[in-house]
Amino acid sequence: MNKKILIDLIKIRDFPAMEVDGKYSPGSAREGLRSVREEAVFSFTCRRCLEAPCIEVCPAEALEKDDTGRVVRNVNLCVRCKSCVAICPFGTLMDDLFEMKPPARMYDLNDDQELDLFIRACPEGTVSYYNGEEDPENHIYKLNDKVMVKEYIWNV
Ligand code: SF4
Ligand code: SF4
Hints:
Layout: E1 5-8, H1 9-12, E2 21-23, H2 29-33, H3 36-45, H4 53-57, E3 63-65, E4 71-73, H5 83-87, E5 106-108, H6 112-121, E6 127-129, E7 140-142, E8 147-150
Parallel strand pairs: 1-8, 2-5
Antiparallel strand pairs: 1-6, 3-4, 7-8
Bound molecules: iron/sulfur cluster (SF4) (2 copies).
One iron/sulfur cluster is lined by residues 57-58, 60, 62-63, 73, 78-84, 98.
């Protein structure tokens, strides 16, 4: 069974830092290196500035926009200086987002056992199983086939 989870980005802001994260990607290997939380933040929290200061300030040219206008990070180029975090005028990027997490704390969400472990390792109420569909009235949106995200998105 394809279990889905809900990541509550609104609740996650109550915690100064997340010790764990997840990876899940049906796409390229490069995408697979990025955490699911980063994907969620750039997809739903980021306001997609036209002249994005995060991209301008990045000393490693690690940030760019994809053809939908979403900011993406090339993990192999990023030097984790957090200049993008500091300059974002909307506080989109949380301080711990780009910190390197030990492999044991990056759960593979394609694996049901690791999915269970990920939910248990996250602060209570921030990540849970979810069987529903998108529900904009309750701020719930689809990131991919596995992951739904709860967030106050900027363009509604
Ligand atoms: S500066 Fe912030 S809101 Fe603007 S594109 Fe970058 S991350 Fe998104
Ligand atoms: S942490 Fe630094 S190197 Fe990485 S994307 Fe942000 S500005 Fe670029």
